[in-house]
Amino acid sequence: MTGRLDGVSDPDGAVPSLADEDGVTAAYRLHGAEVYRFALRGLGDPMAAQDVTQETFVKAWRHAERYDPEVASLRVWLYGIARNTMIDHVRAAAVRPWDSQLAEPPTVEAAAGSISDQADALLDGWLVEEGLRRLAPHHREALVQTHLRGRPYDEVATEMAIPVGTLRSRVFYAMRALRAAMDEMGVSL
């Protein structure tokens, strides 16, 4: 049992040992992509396939003395380790089904961002509400009905018993007054 890579050599012709970092790096360069694709086909999950690939090469490094090039090629030996690691991964997932439902770190970060986004939206809502309180009642009503509730101008004008042109004027002046109120409050739009 030699623990050496078959067909991989360093510049001076020596074959690096699988038990050292250079040997594992060379083995990964030769077979890492193949092992990853093998794990991906077997598991169907890119993150799990990455974990299995990493664990395969860690196990190969830890047990380099078990590799015998007379029994099998390095590729075959790595595939055997990968297969066993995939089986271990599936068994572990079956024991911990809740583990697959945990949020990944990017998901947690995105959720944290959405919480601050919700807080910003809430604060903005309060500021707009305070600005609306500073408007004349007829301007506030026109703006709330058309912009905040998204109702059509003709429907709102009919309900308010005013011409559509008058409603448009009220909305225009309400927007101008709201901007002025927000400026007074120190809020920029």
Care to describe what's here?
Residues 1-16 have low confidence and may be disordered. The protein is 70% helix and 0% strand. α1 (21-43) packs antiparallel against α2, α4 (105-133) crosses α7 (164-185) and α5 (137-148) crosses α7. The chain folds into two domains: 21-101, RNA polymerase sigma factor, region 2, helix turn helix motif (Rna Polymerase Sigma Factor, Chain: A), CATH 1.10.1740; 105-185, Winged helix-like DNA-binding domain superfamily/Winged helix DNA-binding domain (Arc Repressor Mutant, subunit A), CATH 1.10.10.10. The longest helix is centred in the middle third of the chain and has 29 residues, at 105-133. It is mainly alpha-helical.
Q: Topology, pairings included?
A:
Elements: H1 21-43, H2 46-62, H3 74-95, H4 105-133, H5 137-148, H6 153-160, H7 164-185
Helix pairs in contact: 1-2, 1-3, 2-3, 4-7, 5-7, 6-7
Q: What is the general shape?
A: rod-shaped
Low-confidence stretches: 1-16
- CATH-defined topology of the largest domain: Rna Polymerase Sigma Factor, Chain: A
Distance between the termini: 73 Å
Q: Calculate the mean pLDDT score and round it.
A: 80
Secondary-structure element sequence?
Answer: HHHHHHH
Record field, number of beta strands: 0
Family: Belongs to the sigma-70 factor family. ECF subfamily.
Domain RNA polymerase sigma-70 region: 28-93, 132-180
Protein name: Sigma-70 family RNA polymerase sigma factor
Pfam family, one: Sigma70_r4
